[in-house]
Design a protein that fits this description.
The chain has 323 residues and is an all-beta fold. 0% of the residues lie in helices and 48% in strands. A hairpin with a 6-residue loop joins strand 29 and strand 30.
């Protein structure tokens, strides 16, 4: 069965159904102002997306459903001013992305959702997916062929909590575009093929507390961005194959604050700065030290924290926090 809504301002409830193995999408909404509810449904093995939402001003809820093994995305949201609430859903094994956002100016929330084993990313913000408000909580975003989450657009506010970003084929979280604000709490970024977190673009804000960023094949956190602000607090960044935190040569004018965190056992060093005009501050039990390399290559020795103040050295040598 294939379900399509092409008229405006309808109220539709679908429950206890299987919408599977269609040639194209399982459900397609390409009109405006609809209120649409899907409960206890299987939207699997379709030739397009499990659910595709177009038009504008739609309010959609999906609860207790599976959207898996579709030939494109599990869910694809386009248009503008959409509201989507998804809970208790498995979005796994899709040939595209688990969830793709092409919409703008929309509010999207996910709770108790798995985005895993997709051939693309678990969650993907396309280039034109600007100014959205997205919340994802109590989720697993694991074993996708590309990134766990990839943000390629502008001006989004993304809240992420209680999530595992593990064993993805690229980064756990990849922030591109510009002017995005990402807040994450109580998450793990482990055993990804590239970095745990990769921040690119410009004027990004990342606030991250209570993270485990361990065992990634690249860096724990890589910063390629310019003019961005990053805070890492109460987190463990350990046993990554390269560095704990790495500022790429193209990074500049960034502010990194590390609060009461452990950076140890990484293959390189705790923090390496190959960029320019980056400011790094460490706060350990209320005591603050800051430095800027401003040029060249420098490293902060592993482990990051020791008692006392930062010892100043010239760029190209190792920085130590020593007693």
């Amino acid at each position: 069965m294939f379900f399509k809504v092409a008229a405006d301002n309808n109220k539709v409830n679908i429950s206890n159904v299987g919408i599977t193995s269609n040639v194209n999408d399982g459900i397609k909404i390409n009109s405006n102002g609809n209120t649409f509810s899907v409960t206890s449904a299987a939207l699997d093995n379709n030739g397009g997306d499990g659910v595709e939402i177009d038009g504008a001003d739609n309010f959609i809820t999906i609860n207790n459903a599976s959207l898996s093994n579709n030939s494109d995305n599990g869910i694809d949201v386009n248009g503008s001013n959409q509201t989507l609430l998804v809970s208790n859903v498995g979005i796994n094994g899709n040939d595209g992305n688990g969830f793709e956002i092409d919409a703008a100016d929309s509010a999207l929330a996910f709770s108790n959702v798995g985005f895993s084993n997709s051939n693309g990313s678990g969650v993907f913000f396309d280039d034109n997916a600007d100014n959205n408000r997205v919340t994802i909580g109590n989720a697993s975003i694991n074993s996708n062929a590309d990134d766990g989450i990839k943000i390629s657009s502008l001006g989004n506010t993304v809240n992420l909590f209680s999530i595992g970003f593990n064993s993805n084929g690229e980064d756990g979280l990849d922030i591109d575009g510009a002017d995005n604000t990402v807040i994450t709490n109580a998450a793990s970024f482990n055993n990804n093929v590239d970095d745990g977190i990769d921040v690119n673009g410009s004027n990004q804000t990342l606030t991250a507390f209570n993270l485990g960023i361990n065992g990634n094949s690249g860096n724990g956190v890589e910063i390629d961005a310019t003019g961005s602000s990053l805070t890492l607090g109460n987190s463990s960044i350990t046993s990554n194959d390269v560095n704990g935190v790495f500022f790429d040569v193209f990074s500049s004018d960034n502010q990194l604050t590390v609060v009461n965190s452990s950076l140890s056992g990484n293959g390189g060093v705790a923090i390496a700065d190959w960029g320019s005009d980056n400011i790094i501050s460490s706060i350990n039990n209320g005591s603050t030290s800051s430095y800027s390399l401003n040029a060249g290559f420098g490293e902060l020795s592993d482990p990051l924290y020791k008692s006392g103040s930062l010892m100043s050295k010239t760029a190209g040598t190792t920085f130590n926090l020593s007693s």
